[in-house]
Amino acid sequence: MTFDEVAGLYSAHINPCLVTLMRFMGFEEGEGDAHEHVVRSADGTEYIDCLGGFGVFSMGHTHDRIVEAVCSQIRKTPLSSRLLLSDVTARLAAELARITPGDLTYSFFCNSGAEAVEGALKLARFATHRPGFVAATGAYHGKTLGALSVSGRDVYRDPFQPLLPGVTHVPFGDTDALREAVTEETAAVILEPIQGEGGVIIPPHGYLRAARAACDEAGALLILDEVQTGMGRTGKRFACEWEGVVPDVMTLGKALGGGVMPIGAFIARPRYWTMFEENPLIHSSTFGGGPAACAAGLAAIEVLEGEDLPARASMNGTIFRTRLRAIAQRHPGIMEEVRGRGLMTGVSFANSDVGGLVIAGLAQRRVLTAYTLNNPRVVRLQPPLNIPLEVLDTVAERFEESVVQTLELIEGVEVGDGEQ
Description:
This protein is α/β, with parallel strands linked by helices. Helix content is 39%, strand content 17%. The strands form 3 sheets. Strands 4-10-9-8-7-5-6 form a 7-stranded mixed β-sheet, sandwiched between helices. Helix 1 packs across helix 2. The mean pLDDT is 95.
């Protein structure tokens, strides 16, 4: 089918406004195939993927080992009967218990990060018999009702009010505000170790430890959302390891499926798994923990460790940001800040209009990226963790070309304030 034919079907049966947005951004090609860090359009145009499916493709696209593991499992049992126990599901749970920090032991499998957050919130309420949650402004935990309630951008929240009651939002990184908000009514504090959609915001060192201490003092649970930061993205297996903090519940998704299958999970310490004792079906998922998805998760862990992806992300991310900061120095006034950890990088611009022009310039130069959902001023760069350093050099070169082009476009033109 041609792009116009596909776009016509999207407009008629899926989301017409999304088609308009894609056209406006210059993406008027259909998706073809993808491998490693390269995405090809239907007509064969090659793009360097620096968006990475918002964190899904940490192992690259169609990694041979992960694809083969999934195909092998599909030929056996792609989905579970639900009346017989699955060895591949059990093995993935055991592997997660092994690689996650501390005594995180029990896993519940679902289909997305948002579903994992929903389960974590329910677990916290059951374990504490308390109604309240403390979350951060700028947070992003998903768009299902409970996850949206603890997310922190009004443009997504307001149309669906009233949301889950008892949620208090405090400034991310503000230790004093967090401590003050946690009370005897708090079931859990939920935080991202690094805010992804908030603009790749790294909190002050010690913030997660302070959150851990506040929860311990009040008898509340600490939920850390590692859906985007987990599986090696920040240079460690899980971002909470940068501070040596063990949460009571961790949520996972995105890269857990190795870029091949959708899968989410929440994993908790044994003392909080009592929700399932009296009724093992009190929380369930028809497709969660399916054998094919779990086979992808097992293979993703093998790749994570076998290719030492956290170390590669740490080293190459540091080099990449150094080059981006040099670009900012050569072109003062357009880029406010380059920040990140591992291969999770955000570039903050003066406003969203300028950032949008840079994104469009990168697309013209066959580099895929986008802004962060809760902070449109920030252009995110989240390539596969196994992307070669020389390809990142190419991305940096094209990034500078896009910045120069943007400066030429706005010279003598008053650019709108965009979204601050």
